Amino acid sequence: MKNLILSIVAVMLACFLAFLLFIATNQQALVKVHETISNFSTFDNVAKGKTLINTDENHSAKAAITGDKAEEKPYNAKDYVPIAEESSHDASNKKVAQANLPSFNVALKAAQEKVNNNNNSQNEYNDYAIDNTCQGAYYYIFTFKNAKKPHSFYRVTVDKHENAVIFDDAYKPVPQDEARKPNVSAQESEVIAQKYATDHFTQTPRLEKVKEAKQGMLYVFVDVQTKKELKLVITKSGKIITQPALK
Questions:
Q1: Do residues 97 and 132 make contact, with C-beta atoms less than 8 angstroms apart?
Q2: Residue 166 and residue 180 in one domain
Q3: Domains: count for the chain
Q4: Alpha helices, DSSP H only, in 175-242?
Q5: Mean pLDDT of all residues in the chain?
Q6: Structural domain range at position 163
Q7: Is 230 a domain residue?
Q8: SS3 of residue 33 by DSSP
Q9: For 226, which DSSP code?
């Protein structure tokens, strides 16, 4: 039995030595062995490379999405005049408002196209605000420098349907010191608002709301027959600033 095992081991060693001798004397076979080893290494590197590429692509996709969201962030122009910002009384809930309105960029584009088509000029964007009607309908207010009327601004609303409406094409900002200087009393302010509303409507309107605004007092009147709204801000100096009144 021991002799049999020794014979088998001797045969195996002889075969192994013969294989080594064959490789040593046959250069072509040696090259093939090296190629096989290299191929395994190459396949491994390619697999790792594909994994890295896929990972980079995923990161790039996420970065692109993040970039899009960053571009959506509302902004005012550099060195802007606070018109929409000051004359609006702000939406009651901005998160709800933004969820029910088109994205900032989409709304701004609609407003920009509206004013540019209105005077066939490039009108520089100024600032924005988000406001709401008494019925709770939210909308954007955008302002643009009127390229055809120096020192005047467009004021434009954009609703949830992306409808842009110009409600003022020659607004002249109230100087900040004048707007905040208390020249008129609360009673005088309401009288000014009532007179303007009466002249605006065919019948005596109903005063729906009175609220303190950034520049003075906000008054909302409603026409009894047509149910149309009229929104006014009477500044502390007594100036009338009309506000958009969406249906």
A1: yes
A2: no
A3: 3
A4: 176-180, 186-200
A5: 76
A6: 84-171
A7: yes
A8: helix
A9: T
Domain shared by 167 and 187, yes or no: no
Tokens of 104: 């900032």
The reported pLDDT for the residue numbered 19 is 64
224: Cβ–Cβ under 8 A, 6 or more apart, which residues? 203, 204, 205, 206
**Token pair listed for 89:** 């009384």
Closest C-alpha to 232, from 185, 198, 183: 198
Joined together, the tokens standing for residue 201 give 């409507």
Asked, for residue 79, whether it belongs to a domain, the answer is: no
Q: Is the Cβ–Cβ distance between 156 and 141 less than 8 Å?
A: yes
In angstroms, the CA 16 to CA 53 distance is 44
- Mean pLDDT (whole number) for 162-188: 80
State residue 21's pLDDT score: 64
Q: What is the pTM of this model?
A: 0.59
Query: Residue 197 is part of a domain; what is its CATH number?
Result: 3.10.450
Q: Could you say which DSSP state residue 122 is in?
A: -
Domain co-membership, 101 together with 166: yes
Please list the alpha-helical segments (H only) found in the chain: 2-25, 27-71, 84-87, 94-99, 104-119, 176-180, 186-200
Residue 167's CB is within 10 A of a number of other CB atoms, namely 15
Q: What CA–CA distances, in Å, run from 4 to 1, 14, 15, 38, 87?
A: 5, 15, 17, 40, 107
Question: Residues 69-107: pLDDT tens digits?
Answer: 444 678 899 999 998 888 776 655 677 888 889 999 999
Cα gap 68→89, rounded to integer Å? 29
Domain assignment of residue 52, yes or no: yes
Task: Answer yes or no: is 140 within a domain.
Answer: yes
**pLDDT, tens digit, for every residue of 140-153?**
999 999 999 999 99
